[in-house]
Amino acid sequence: MESINHWAVLVAAASSFLLGGIWYGPLFKRAWCREAGVDPDKPNGHRAKVFGGAFALSLIAAAVFAMFLGPKPALGFAVGAGVAAGLCWVGASFGINYLFAGRSLKLWLIDGGYHTLQFALYGLILGLWH
């Protein structure tokens, strides 16, 4: 944990939080809500709890990904590993769950696409900021 750049991890977590605001906001809010069976005009839980929890989980994911990459990853490796982690670990895992839950391909593409970009951003930030 000492060898990772804690500021880069914090910025990476913030980047995924901001990406989520755009991705699940103006880009895909209506489609995601429809596919997930969520009322877009009715919040699910207390906003501070939801957003605080989401940021905490983003921070954990960014920190563990930074440990996986090591202290000074090459940029190409870091971004490639981010795309692979988002698409092949997170996206594929969601795909398994969505198949058993009978969720739509569209929902999987929205969620898997977000996590692929999330980890690619982590890789970009961690690969640039040693």
Notes on the structure:
The protein is mostly helical and 130 residues long. The protein has one domain. Helix 1 crosses helix 3, helix 2 crosses helix 5 and helix 4 runs antiparallel to helix 5. The protein is globular.
How does the SSE layout of this entry go?
Elements lengths: L5 H22 L1 H8 L10 H23 L5 H27 L3 H24 L2
How many strand elements? Answer: 0
Domain tally: 1
The largest β sheet comes out as:
none
Compute the separation of the termini in Å: 14 Å
Which runs of at least 5 residues are low in confidence (pLDDT < 50)? none
Structural class comes to mainly alpha
Helical element count? 5
Gyration radius from CA atoms, angstroms: 15 Å
Order of helices and strands: HHHHH
Q: What general outline do the C-alpha atoms trace?
A: globular
- Mean residue pLDDT: 95
Helix proportion range: over 70%
Strand content: under 5%
Protein name: DUF1761 domain-containing protein
Organism: Luteimonas gilva
Transmembrane segments: 6-27, 48-69, 75-100, 107-129
Keywords: Membrane, Transmembrane, Transmembrane helix
